[in-house]
Amino acid sequence: MKVELSFFEIEESLGGQQIWFPSYMMRLGGCATVTACDCCIYFELYKNLHGIYPFDAKNISKADYINFAAEMKKYLCPRWHGIDTLNLYIEQFEKFLCDAGETKLKLSAWDGDKDFKSTHLILKYQLDNGFPIPFLMLEHINPTVKKYTWHWFLLTGCEINGEDFYVKVTSYGVAKWFNFDFLWYTGFRRKGGLIVFSGI
């Protein structure tokens, strides 16, 4: 069983990229902003929400995306330790949505200490219902995923193959498949987790 969300491109980049931002701090720590911007554009394109992306979602330019990110930065501005909790992300993203006049879309936290089985179910449910999933991964014991540590990225697909559960990670303008249990079991006490959307 495989589920993959439709997603948008910006000049051959799958979604936005923080490397585009003019500010050094945003290039370093703008990943939460990128996921929020990408979700807003996605919801405009595929969930019939209007007013949360101020430009033409069907004709996205890099310049428009950068200007949109500058607005989102007012809410999800990089901090010394980053946007390092689910609740901080939710609080700030919901402020943006409220100011944009969007009241139906709701966000909730799915903590990284939840078990594999229930997390597989919530992932499949979200993706089956057409929701991208922001994922915060903090530290991880395996250095092969260093690029994705202390980082927000989106899950935009999943595949079940026997006992294995794979997810499609969209970040840095590309998508890669990972074994989800490998990502979820970080080996550290402090966890990140997932953002769950509902209400639309």
Give the CA-based shape. Answer: globular
Radius of gyration: 16 Å
N- and C-termini, Cα separation: 25 Å
- The fraction of residues assigned to DSSP E strands is 15-25%
Major beta-sheet overview: 7 strands, antiparallel
Descriptive notes:
The radius of gyration is 16 Å and the shape is globular. It contains 6 helices and 9 strands. By secondary structure, it is of the alpha+beta class. Strands 1, 4, 5, 6, 7, 8 and 9 form a 7-stranded antiparallel beta sheet that branches. The protein has a two-stranded antiparallel sheet with strand order 2-3. The longest helix has 16 residues, at 31-46. A hairpin with a 2-residue loop joins β2 and β3. The chain starts with a strand and ends with a strand.
Offer a concise description of the structure:
This protein is of the alpha+beta class and 200 residues long. It is built from 6 helices and 9 strands.
Secondary structure layout plus pairing:
Layout: E1 2-4, E2 9-10, E3 13-14, H1 24-29, H2 31-46, H3 62-72, H4 86-99, E4 106-111, H5 116-128, E5 133-137, E6 151-161, E7 164-171, E8 174-179, H6 180-184, E9 193-198
Antiparallel strand pairs: 1-6, 2-3, 4-9, 5-6, 5-9, 6-7, 7-8
Helix pairs in contact: 2-3
Key attributes of the depicted protein:
single chain; globular; 9 strands; two-stranded antiparallel sheet; 200 residues; seven-stranded antiparallel beta sheet; alpha+beta
